[in-house]
Amino acid sequence: MEALAALVAALTLQAGWNASLVALGAGMLGLAAGGAGAFLFLRKRALVSDAASHATLPGVAAAFLVMVAFGGDGRFLPGLMLGSAISAGLGLALVAWITRATRLAEDAAIGAVLSVSFGLGIVLLTVIQIVPAGKAAGLEGFLLGSTAGMLQSEAVTIAVAGAIAAALVFALRRPMTLVAFDPEHAEATGVGVWRTDLAMMGVALLVTVVGLKIVGLVLIVALLIIPPVAARFWTDRVSTLALLATAFGGVAGYVGAAISSIEARLPTGPIIVLAAFAIFAVSFLVSPRRGVLAALLRRRRLEARVHLRQGLLALARGEAVYDRLTLRLLLARGWIRRDGAMTEAGRAAAAAAALDEARWSLARRLLPEAGVAERYDGLTPIGESLTPDQIARIDRGLARPEALA
Amino acid sequence: MRLLESFAARSPLSQALPASARPPLAQGPERGAGATPAPDAAADAPLCVRGLTVAYGGKPAVFGVDATLPAGSMTAIVGPNGAGKSTFLKGALGVIPRVAGEATVFGKPFARARHRVAYVPQRASVDWDFPALAEDVVMMGLYPRMGLFRLPGRRHRETARACLARVGMEAFAERQIGQLSGGQQQRVFLARALAQDADLYLLDEPFAGVDAATETVLVSVLQSLRDAGRTVACVHHDLSTVAAYFDRVLLLNGARIAEGPVAETFTEANLQAAYGGRLATAGLAAPGAIPATPAGSPPAPPPGAAAR
């Protein structure tokens, strides 16, 4: 109960000035990450940003060492961000160069750059432990994110940079959409694919660097990718997808940071990612468009319709029905009795189904211009597809089959 | 603009499309340039390509091609597989880098005349699971005019709908593009090109894998563009329909084999040169016989199939 009260306090910005600031900063970061991630996802560049985020680590460590060497505070956040941006940029350039200069596929280049730069970063972190000023550096916090003891100025820096990244995503949304959908057409209309990709990676880099402190470099890719993937379940339009992903990212960042502020030892990054995953899981399950439950339900409903219809047609022809599902459905509707004999209502339904089928088959001959053949699916009653006049015409034909010949 | 007027005149859409709904006229003297032929007509042609050479990985796919598309013409770009037909288009537009040669569009470098060109790539270059409705795809043709920040307004949406109607796809405006048939997708792409309201339309295999109904629609839309003074060129595979659909032909096989009006250029000798003897002569009798094939006649045995 106490934890719940603390959570409610954190979510409603009652848990103290600092915690509120961190939650808002994380929310802003999530907005930017969701929006930028939407276009990375559409362009299928998610893993490239993972390489970039891992490549920040050597930069963080090097920036710390440089700042200490010049007698400054090694933990100065903008300095660390600058260092991480430089090394992540180098990592990205390396991926691009390997892909261009050799015949290696991009995923191989990503794997190589990601692991090598991460390894280099870890080695540098170990070196920092040896340096006198490095003991209390707390740079490990950049791996998984940490908001404990975060300075107010740091939270503000993160929020402002996040807002800038979100604005850039908005400004670039059209070129990024064109390039992701049809790069050749985009190039021909003057939207340079290379330039647009570069700008997009620049924004992703900004989000990564901004997110280092809160989410950590290992998991920032999740905050870029999970929101758009969750959003994809709800929409078939880019504009809605980008807006939803932005919102999902913002909620995940805000809620995750609030939860982790309850207990200082909770790592912020993993909690934010879990919050994002919760949104994904809900979307995956209950989205009416592409969710699994909806798909299951649609399938069940279709099965029931097919079985009922075919059962009725069999009964109308005087055939026995053996299929268990069909029998159960017919029984549930009260169209047959337990012994398999038709009820009065069943006889009427079977006759109606048989008439419908006969009308459809005649409609194909009488009304070729109405596109009947395409509309017939063996399920839809003809009344939903043709006008009463057309049906009356068919019925006249049914009544006098000899006149049609 | 001529485009919208030309189809507004023959469809009831003209009422649905107030003048304010039309995209702004491209202004400037260059619009009228085609009306008065310059001393060197080729220099101002909708597309003028000189010595175009494009290579993939050290091996030239297209070499030293000269071609000129005159205004108001409809050209088939024909040749065997691997002849560099698509590469020719992409190289001319600078979508892929050129090794040598140059291309001008209405007498200007392509970069300065882009807004007058609509390019329809092969359908294979597109991600079909992309979250876009048919209407959104057509709207993409309007992006260059919308700029960075403007939200699509009602008149943009009306233009997009009108372009979809032009290709008989208005009923599918709200369908996700992956849920359309191949022919319907191709129609949506043509609608996107129409939305660009260009003067030069370059299409890469628009008839590949589409049903007969779609082919008829595409051809009639393209021909009406030509009749309205626009210039059209298509990479085309079906030799049996070249004479019925097009008025000019560009025969390629790495290098240019021949270029000119169908009646003079689409000859057996040129075809043999382009297809290098791989073309079975069945169905292609005397040179004159091919262009004479009337549009409505039952299709000749497709020689294109034999060439593959």
Automatic annotation (TrEMBL), chain A:
Query: Where is it found, in Gene Ontology cellular component terms?
Result: ATP-binding cassette (ABC) transporter complex
Organism field: Albimonas pacifica
Which SUPFAM superfamilies does the record associate with it?
A: ABC transporter involved in vitamin B12 uptake, BtuC (SSF81345)
For this protein, the record's InterPro entries field holds: ABC_BtuC-like, ABC_TroCD
User: What processes does the entry annotate via GO biological process terms?
Assistant: response to zinc ion; transmembrane transport
Which family is this protein grouped under?
Belongs to the ABC-3 integral membrane protein family.
- Under which name does UniProt file this protein? Manganese/zinc/iron transport system permease protein
Q: Which UniProt keywords apply?
A: Cell membrane, Membrane, Transmembrane, Transmembrane helix, Transport
- Domain of life of the organism in this record? Bacteria
Compartment(s) where it occurs, according to its Swiss-Prot or TrEMBL record: Cell membrane
Membrane topology listed for this record = Multi-pass membrane protein
Gene3D superfamilies assigned: ABC transporter involved in vitamin B12 uptake, BtuC
Q: What is the lineage of its organism?
A: Bacteria, Pseudomonadati, Pseudomonadota, Alphaproteobacteria, Rhodobacterales
List residues traversing the bilayer. Answer: 25-42, 51-70, 76-98, 110-131, 151-172, 203-226, 238-259, 271-288
Tell me where the signal peptide lies.
Answer: none
From TrEMBL, chain B:
Q: Which UniProt keywords apply?
A: ATP-binding, Ion transport, Nucleotide-binding, Transport, Zinc, Zinc transport
Q: What is this protein called?
A: Manganese/zinc/iron transport system ATP-binding protein
Mind telling me which PANTHER family this protein's record contains?
A: IRON TRANSPORT SYSTEM ATP-BINDING PROTEIN HI_0361-RELATED, METAL TRANSPORT SYSTEM ATP-BINDING PROTEIN TM_0124-RELATED
Molecular function terms in GO for this entry?
ATP binding; ATP hydrolysis activity
Query: Does the keyword ATP-binding feature in the UniProt annotation?
Result: yes
Q: Where is this region: Disordered?
A: 18-40
- PROSITE patterns xrefs: ABC_TRANSPORTER_1, ABC_TRANSPORTER_2
- Provide the species name: Albimonas pacifica
Spell out the Pfam families in the cross-references: ABC_tran
Any single GO BP term: zinc ion transport
Q: What is the lineage of its organism?
A: Bacteria, Pseudomonadati, Pseudomonadota, Alphaproteobacteria, Rhodobacterales
Entry similarity comment: Belongs to the ABC transporter superfamily.
InterPro entries in UniProt: AAA+_ATPase, ABC_transporter-like_ATP-bd, ABC_transporter-like_CS, Metal_Ion_Import_ABC, P-loop_NTPase
Q: Which residues form the ABC transporter domain?
A: 47-279
Keyword check for Zinc, yes or no: yes
Which CDD domains is this protein grouped with?
ABC_Metallic_Cations
